Amino acid sequence: MTRSVDTRAVQGVLYGVYKALYNIAGASAPAVMRQAAPDILAELSKLGVSFECVDDVDKLSSKIGETMEKTGMCDKMEMKLEGDRLKADITNCAFFDLTMHLKEDGIPPFGCPFAALTIAIAEKNLGKKARLVNLEPTPGGKPGDTRLEVQLF
Amino acid sequence: MFNTDGVLKNLNDVPGVHQSLIVGRDGFVINSMGDMEADSVGAVISTAIGAIEAMGRDCKQGVLFEVMAEYKGGVVIAAPIGQDAVLGIVADDSANLGGVRFVVKKSMKELEKVM
Fold first, then answer.
1. ipTM surpasses cut 0.85
2. What pLDDT digit, counting tens, does each position of B40-72 carry?
3. Is domain A7-152 annotated with CATH 3.40.120.10?
4. A123 burial class (0-12, 13-18, 19+ CB within 10 angstroms)?
5. Closest-CA distance of chain A to residue B19, Å
6. Measured CA distances, B35 to A22, A46, B74 (Å)
7. CATH classification code of B5-114
8. Which among A13, B58, B60, B107 is least buried, having the fewest CB atoms inside 10 angstroms?
9. Closest chain B residue by Cα to residue A23
């Protein structure tokens, strides 16, 4: 059974959880997301979303983009590899308002699901260590457009 | 990436110390030495340091220098390296705690220079 949920309600719940996590773990809050990401992947796979076929950046871009778009988390997600940097452009991120609300309260975007899943899949399927190095509104983009950058080691 | 092998080797050479690692605040393991699940240990140590810092902040105790947790089997020591990383050490109950902490303090000075 599928069911629609008002994203404002989901963002309200996430706002409370992220704020509490940040109050408890401070600058180490991203480490919590690092631990959460493999479980998020496992839960998604129960919904029929499998990333097993992902073994290069093109497949990663295609698969994660398709998943995020299908689930309504964004309108579009495109990735490209530049040297050791994996860059993703996200169009109309569903969590943008939440991210901005947290930012107003001095809380960095440590809970970004796009970043968490990109890192988890890169480490699991591409055999690389990965680390988020930048996440910001896309320069010159519309509200909701976001650019993230992950460094691969 | 900075070469921190020498610092970790010095730590692991202390009798009783089995594992040491340097982990980013985001849980990314920068370097590790010794037999352990470094990703898992690193994430936990980074999160624990964050929580202990929050406790100090709320109790108005100022900046955190070091954490030492004593268990039946030994100790885990963690210390923040600047704003972005954490040093973690795992030692068994045979370790001389004073000796370990001395080496940790010395290592911190070296790490703060290179990181």
1. no
2. 999 999 999 999 999 999 999 999 999 999 999
3. no
4. buried
5. 20
6. 31, 33, 16
7. 3.30.450.30
8. B60
9. B54
| pLDDT for A60 | 83
CA distance B97 to chain A (A): 26
Query: Which sequence spans correspond to the domains of chain A?
Result: 7-152
Take residue B31 and report the two structure tokens written for it.
């370097």
Q: How far apart are CA A88 and CA A69, in angstroms?
A: 14
Residues B46, A28: C-beta atoms closer than 8 Å: yes
Any idea which of A45-54, A70-79, B54-63 has the lowest mean pLDDT? A45-54
How far is residue A100's CA from residue A89's CA, in Å, rounded to a whole number?
17
Element of type H or E holding A63? helix A57-70
| Residue A70 binned pLDDT confidence (cut-offs 50, 70, 90) | confident
Spell out the domain ranges in chain B.
5-114
DSSP B26-51: TS-EEEEESSS-HHHHHHHHHHHHHH
The verdict on a CB contact (< 8 Å) between B43 and A31 is yes
pTM exceeds 0.95: no
State how far the alpha carbon of B78 is from the alpha carbons of A35, A151, A152, in Å: 19, 26, 26
Q: Where are the alpha helices (DSSP H) in B1-115?
A: 5-12, 38-58, 97-114
If one counts every other C-beta atom within 10 angstroms of the C-beta of residue B4, the result is 23
As a whole number of angstroms, the longest Cα–Cα distance in chain B is 37
